[in-house]
Predict the structure.
Amino acid sequence: MFLGKGISEPNYSTKFISGCQSNLHMNTSNEFSILFAKPRKNKGNCKKNNLYVVFYWQNFNYIRAFKFLSIHTIFPMQKKSSYSFPIILIFFFFLVTSSNGQSHENLTKSFDKIVGEENLGINNGIFNLQDYRFVVENETKYFLGPNYTTGNVKYDGQQYYDVRLKYDLEKDLFIYNPKNASAGIGVNLIQYKVDSFSIYDKKFVNLGNLEPVENPLILNGYYQKIKIGPGFIFYTKFKKNKTEIIKNDKIYYSYRGDHQFLLKYQNDYIEISSESDVQEIFPAHSKNIQNFYEVEKLLESSNLPLFYQKLMFYINDLLGN
């Protein structure tokens, strides 16, 4: 593909719209490029009847895939004519150049509002069937509560900000609440397409997607990621196991938390579940680790993930990182 005289295609767009046979319409300069791609057939990452928008301005790039039959669906006020694309390009150029100084996140959110959040690729998933079973009071299968919360997600190669999300720990499902939809409506995001997400100021990654070689220690789905120090990352897999309880001739469901803890240290993944596991990894600090377990017994019994996080940072300090 070619973006204009003397301007080769930016690297970020080659993977996303590789192999597309499209009519390209663009405006280019040394700092500003826009490309609209409409594939005539399915090929590579491109899907027929999708509209792909690649926008580049200085160090900001914006890539989105839309389920449209034409560019005019986004701009219904524009009649089909040779003037449509120049008008659109001027509009985009005015928006971005007038937004100089804004962050990548703010510019992305501005563009998403323009094209319509209901038209974004994040809406492409499986409808979530609401579960109306009786649940034991004050228990939930969701991460930190059953309500949607505002967060960020990287889905199908595209970053989305300030969207409504919740995480089902029983089924390991990440659920999106579409724009202007009621809380009873959700979309199950396709797991292998989710690279990462952030909710409640905690970052999660689809760890299997990050590793080029399959690792038997890594389970399918999402892990909370905490960078402890150089070459030192702590991962937590949150799970909820369901049990049935019969009460007053009704079946209730109780959920009990479970975890898997992985330490990536010096490029190796190590599963930890006991004091001896940690001491085996850091034998020079075995006594300090033993003392930590004695002092933090209450935290270990009440909040095991937080206990291990605190322990990892403590060990990192002992290592002098």
In short: The chain is about 25% helix and 35% strand. Residues 1-32, 66-90 have pLDDT under 50 and may be disordered. The radius of gyration is 24 Å.
